Amino acid sequence: LGNKNNYLREEECILACRGVQGGPLRGSSGAQATFPQGPSMERRHPDTSGFDELQRIHFPSDKGHCVDLPDTGLCKESIPRWYYNPFSEHCARFTYGGCYGNKNNFEEEQQCLESCRGISKKDVFGLRRESPLPSTGSVEVGVAVFLVICIVVVVAILGYCFFKNQRKDFRGHHHCHHPPPTPASSTVSTTEDTEHLVYNHTTRP
């Protein structure tokens, strides 16, 4: 099963073991290795039986793209390309859009196989964990921000139109009300009605 002193890249090994010092130990195969000293290491020694096999395994630092999923990119062209599948350890066809995407993108099948030879499904987690975020992430963030801005602008326009209509309705309703009759006009109307009644009464045959 091996142990945790097992890294796919030299950079990962240096980063994990930076500043660690220890004395030489020899495993069952006679290989000399360096392990950290401390209370936990004094109680038990790590298994070094697979150390020689680990030394013989070489993973170039530029193979991280071999475990990436095929990315068609953002453009709309239809370009036949090859990508490496670490689960089947073969290359397969996919359609490339013509721009962006990732490096798991080869023009020829032979080029794909030579570039990613030796990468299998057991390497997927380690290499993907170290791979940088895809460039399409920034595009998605930009689209999300643009949509939020559009929504805010639409809400502001609708709010402005609503309040404008409310003010217009209020003014129209205010102008439709007739002013209440004044006492003088009421008196004049009553006098005219009385005179009309008296005239009708005296002139009636």
Describe the structure.
With 205 residues, the chain is mainly α. Among the domains are: 10-56, no CATH class; 64-134, Pancreatic trypsin inhibitor Kunitz domain (Factor Xa Inhibitor, Irregular). It has helices spanning 10-16, 39-43, 51-56, 109-116, 124-130, 136-176, 183-203, and strands at residues 24-26, 32-34, 79-85, 90-96. The protein has a two-stranded antiparallel ribbon. Strands 3-4 form a two-stranded antiparallel sheet. A hairpin with a 5-residue loop joins strand 1 (24-26) and strand 2. It starts with 9 loop residues before the first helix and ends with a helix. Keywords: Disulfide bond, Membrane, Transmembrane, Transmembrane helix. The chain crosses the membrane at residues 141-163. This is SPINT1 isoform 4.
Task: Sum this structure up briefly.
The protein is mostly helical and 205 residues long.
